[in-house]
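Late entry, flavin-adenine dinucleotide complex.
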Amino acid sequence: MGTYVVIGAGLAGAATAWHLAGRGHEVTVLERSVPANGEGSSHGSARILRYGYPDPFYVRLVVEARAEWDGLERLSGERLISGTGSLDFGAGRDPAALAALFEEAGVEHELLTSADATERWPGFRFGSDVDGDSGVLWHPAAGVIDPEAAVSAMLRLARADGARVETGWPVAAVERAGAGHRVLAADGRREEAEKVVVTAGGWLPGLLGALPLPRAFLDALPPIQVMEENAYHFPYRDGAGEAWPTFIHKDAGMLVYGLPGGRDAALPDGRTGLKIAEYNGGRPIRSAAARTGRIDPANRRRITGYVRRTLPGLVPEPYAETTCLFTNTPTEDFVIDGVGGVTVASPCSGHGAKFAPLLGRIIADAASGERPAPEPFRVA
Ligand SMILES: Cc1cc2nc3c(=O)[nH]c(=O)nc-3n(C[C@H](O)[C@H](O)[C@H](O)COP(=O)(O)OP(=O)(O)OC[C@H]3O[C@@H](n4cnc5c(N)ncnc54)[C@H](O)[C@@H]3O)c2cc1C
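Prediction complete; structure with ligand written out below:
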């Protein structure tokens, strides 16, 4: 059995620690703040689990990930996903092409006309797209993940298998020490381990230069761009809103997603609303440390206008707003690869949450040398 340090306790780090500890390895998780903290990407109560991807590789990956989520829910005894179903619409989303991929992968779905979909979900105005009416795809297996609960469940299971989770432990550098590694904090604290897994989210660009990775590996990494994204919560007109599905709408180059916002933001009377954001509608920043927490007023106007045009079931005035971090690669593929006992995992690009427990398995396989990550995640 090996010894591992996992840097970062977001969804990726928690899932990796859970899988490594479950295999009998000695695992220490070092987290600069607290698990699933609000400065990273895995905080709050709401991420979409949807199967709609234009690439069959990812559709299959969601099917596999769902089985891992079911296993995690069973093991932890917690409900981590609420079923909502999901709608895909807009010519840019190509609902018919997604339906063909669902057919191949055995994902239950219905392809509806915009008129039929409007009757069923009157809170939406379908079919008024600039790019024409391309119908609406419904898949009932989609849902909303509670990322904070998932992180804490996976860390609890990791601890039960002997993992140690250190909070307030910012890793400043990793160096080689004999056949293994020494992980250093700026205040002189240190940890030794044979292998190191870096799951540092939006802090990765700032940490890469302090890792003992060969120049050739660093040069082959895809460029990693951190985005400070904007998200808004809108009230339901009818007050309730439990039946709202998640959705992805792409038209005229604008990709918008929405989901029941859960406990992330509540109205003064305790009711919650729909969380809506433009995918990659934020601004690029150097690294997580450069985050401002400021909403872009132009983005707020774009989204409010969008809600007014497309979602008549919502009051077009956000009652809460927030920023958060995407850590993007140009292709939106994840990075999971390493060399010499240091594995770098950057499974974000704004869509990594739904795969978390499966990614933990894939990262643990790659880090332990049992199996390399799937080809799209490997560094050339
Ligand atoms: C607003 C928003 C909406 C999203 N929506 C969806 C969605 O609907 N569906 C979906 O599938 N995905 C979604 N995602 C993406 C998903 O949430 C991310 O893929 C996932 O949270 C990434 O997790 P992570 O562990 O890689 O990063 P993080 O959660 O950021 O974790 C990294 C951790 O590392 C710690 N850390 C960093 N540097 C150090 C250091 N030097 N030493 C110690 N610790 C360190 C940080 O404090 C942090 O806790 C969304 C993301 C955001 C932000």
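The pocket of flavin-adenine dinucleotide is lined by residues 7-13, 30-33, 37, 40-42, 47-48, 147, 170-171, 199-203, 207, 229, 231, 324-326, 347-348, 350-354 (CB under 6 Å). Will revisit in the morning.
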